[in-house]
């Protein structure tokens, strides 16, 4: 991936690119680099076209690619949602004459760069057209990285920009951004700007500068409760209230996290690995890893009992019974007491 970006920066373009995957950061960054590398400011209006293949026939895209550039050296054509390469069902009634594309793939013109973006995990490898385009195109993998891949990715981006960031800082950045590459990259851009002179990013920089999402604050709140740090948990809770977060929304996220812990606990008891749990629950593997760590502090029956209490609180909040903020406060205290009893 990084090597292909470097080639684009050097203006070493491939005639055809195929981007496969669902990680928006990689997709958008590749598009941005291609636009900057292929087109000048004056070319964008005349030599750039962006198509949605759910709405545009492929033969029109090919025709656009075969059109000679106007006041420029190259044309850049981007075509998204090539359903004819996948097994995905689409509501679009667009019919594509893919034989026209097959002919173009065999002999692409020199003056156009044609980019296909398949926002899916994989293509339909059984199709003749899929095999042909994968053979002819430069493939950009835009899959969502697992934790190990994300560590390498962040280190590579740091090195590419001539910054140093050790493993502990990288791990903390991943943790605070919930393993979401787009969020992590946005925060890394901010960190690099802040440390532009020193060009070294430390764990302390990440602690002080990275913005925690509401979901991350909920995770940290539960971590505080498990560690018997009620003052720390309440401090996070009060900060959320100061930020005008609604108690009922906070409750919903706490319930969502406990529901995840319950599911992880159950599936682990059935012998599933963390990777299998992530696939089964359709959640990020990093979130499962952190959830599994929290779930170890609870028995399965404790988690189901907590979920019942949270469901009752949700009902009371929605029916106007009692003070909403105070209800959550008492829940945190009661959970703290439960943790203390288990430690005895």
UniProtKB/TrEMBL annotation:
Domain DNA polymerase III delta subunit-like C-terminal residues, every copy: 215-334
SUPFAM superfamilies: P-loop containing nucleoside triphosphate hydrolases, post-AAA+ oligomerization domain-like
EC number: 2.7.7.7
GO biological process, any: DNA-templated DNA replication
Domain of life, per lineage: Bacteria
GO cellular component, one term: DNA polymerase III complex
InterPro entries the record matches: DNA_pol3_clamp-load_cplx_C, DNA_pol3_delta-like_C, DNA_pol3_delta_N, DNA_polIII_delta, P-loop_NTPase
GO MF assignments: DNA binding; DNA-directed DNA polymerase activity
UniProt domain DNA polymerase III delta N-terminal: residue ranges: 17-143
Keyword set, alphabetical order: DNA replication, DNA-directed DNA polymerase, Nucleotidyltransferase, Transferase
Catalysed reactions, semicolon-separated: DNA(n) + a 2'-deoxyribonucleoside 5'-triphosphate = DNA(n+1) + diphosphate
Family to which this protein belongs: Belongs to the DNA polymerase HolA subunit family.
Name of the protein in question: DNA polymerase III subunit delta
Organism, scientific name: Listeria rocourtiae
């Amino acid at each position: 991936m990084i090597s292909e970006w470097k080639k684009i920066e050097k203006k070493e373009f491939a005639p055809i690119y195929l981007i496969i995957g669902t990680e928006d950061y990689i997709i958008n960054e590749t598009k941005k680099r291609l636009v900057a590398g292929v087109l000048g400011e004056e070319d964008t209006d005349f030599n750039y076209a962006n198509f949605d293949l759910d709405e545009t026939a492929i033969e029109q895209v090919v025709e656009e690619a075969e059109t000679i550039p106007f006041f420029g050296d190259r044309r850049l054509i981007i075509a998204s949602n090539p359903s004819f390469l996948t097994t995905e069902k689409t509501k679009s009634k667009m019919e594509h004459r893919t034989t026209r594309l097959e002919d173009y793939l065999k002999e692409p013109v020199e003056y156009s760069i044609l980019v296909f973006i398949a926002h899916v995990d994989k293509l339909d490898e059984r199709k003749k057209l899929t095999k042909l385009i994968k053979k002819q195109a430069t493939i950009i993998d835009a899959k969502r990285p697992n934790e190990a891949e994300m560590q390498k990715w962040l280190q590579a981006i740091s090195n590419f920009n001539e910054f140093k960031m050790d493993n502990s800082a990288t791990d903390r950045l991943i943790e605070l951004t919930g393993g979401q590459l787009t969020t992590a990259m946005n925060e890394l851009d901010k960190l690099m700007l802040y440390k532009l002179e020193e060009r070294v990013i430390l764990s302390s920089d990440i602690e002080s500068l990275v913005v925690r999402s509401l979901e991350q604050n909920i995770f940290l709140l539960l971590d505080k409760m498990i560690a018997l740090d009620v003052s720390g948990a309440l401090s996070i809770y009060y900060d959320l209230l100061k930020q005008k977060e609604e108690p009922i929304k906070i409750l919903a996220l706490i319930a969502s996290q406990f529901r995840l812990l319950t599911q992880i606990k159950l599936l682990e008891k059935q012998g599933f690995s963390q990777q299998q749990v992530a696939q089964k629950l359709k959640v990020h593997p990093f979130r499962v890893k952190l959830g599994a760590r929290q779930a170890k502090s609870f028995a399965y029956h404790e988690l189901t009992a907590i979920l019942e209490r949270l469901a009752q609180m949700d009902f009371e909040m929605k029916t106007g019974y009692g003070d909403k903020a105070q209800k959550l406060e008492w829940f945190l205290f009661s959970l703290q007491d439960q943790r203390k009893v288990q430690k005895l």
